[in-house]
Design brief:
The structure holds two protein chains of two kinds. Chain A is mostly helical. Chain A is about 85% helix and about 0% strand. Classes of the chains: A mainly alpha, B mainly alpha. Chains A and B meet through helix 1, helix 2, helix 3 and helix 4 of A and helix 3, helix 4 and helix 5 of B.
Chain lengths: ~110, ~140
């Protein structure tokens, strides 16, 4: 698990910088209005990039949550349930966010 | 073989210590070194960033409620309290990322003898870059 946390962490430093620069510095003054955000997300490359960023950040965050809980000492059976619950939560987060942004872009 | 742990081992003696003494021990800095500080800060910033991730997604759900809801949020985001919160967030992200690189190096067996200096480097760089970022936010308005 350590290696995945490290690899996703390195990937996140790159994706986070791209996310911040794209959101705050590409358009003069940054994305502010509703129209700015929708226009930004309607670029398919950006949409894919933001979705990949969300997937990696969610995986990294939930692996971190599991690492903290494992440090408290839980049984292997509890860990299996924990993994299943975190996987379901992560999937829910990504599906919800893609649905949210996707439907907002399609409506515009 | 004695190993250095990021926390103090719980002994029989500790278990017999009254709770208020154990609680006070959290504030006792004797024997606390950079490795412990780096670990605790990594945990705290990590927990904070997980909460922020959920908050960020909740805020983005205003996109589904149309331009009025979104613009109301943007007005809130430009308030001084929110900018102060941004500063805390930016420090958390920078420290978590920079210390993460330190942890990766140490995990690969690189720089173990310089781990304390690496921690202070990550910590000070986080503060400096946070100051730069907050200044940019204030200048952009």
């Amino acid at each position: 698990m350590w290696i995945w946390q490290a690899l996703s962490g390195i990937l996140l430093t790159v994706l986070l910088v791209v996310h911040m620069v794209a959101n705050h510095f590409v358009v003069e003054g940054g994305l502010r209005t509703y129209a700015d955000v929708i226009h930004y997300l309607s670029n398919p490359v950006i949409f894919l990039l933001e979705t990949v960023f969300l997937m990696v950040v969610t995986a990294h965050a939930l692996m971190g949550v599991r690492a903290i809980i494992l440090d408290l000492g839980i049984s292997p059976a509890a860990d299996r349930r924990l993994k299943a619950a975190l996987f379901a939560l992560g999937t829910l987060i990504v599906v919800y966010a893609v649905w949210l942004t996707g439907s907002a872009v399609l409506r515009a | 073989m004695e190993r250095s742990l990021p926390y103090r081992p719980v002994s029989e003696h500790v278990a017999r210590t009254p709770w208020w003494r154990r609680a006070a021990a959290w504030a006792d800095l004797h024997g606390r070194r950079e490795g412990w500080l780096a670990f605790i800060l990594m945990r705290l910033t990590g927990i904070g960033l997980v909460f922020y991730l959920f908050l960020h997604l909740t805020v983005l759900s205003t996109l589904a409620r149309g331009p009025q809801a979104w613009d109301a949020f943007i007005a809130l985001a430009r308030s001084p309290l929110f900018v102060a919160f941004d500063g805390v967030l930016i420090f958390g992200m920078l420290y978590h990322g920079l210390n993460g690189l330190r942890v990766i190096l140490l995990g690969l067996g690189v720089g173990s003898r310089r781990q304390a200096e690496l921690f202070w480097g990550a910590f000070v760089l986080s503060i400096v870059l946070t100051a730069v970022a907050v200044r940019m936010i204030l200048m952009m308005g």
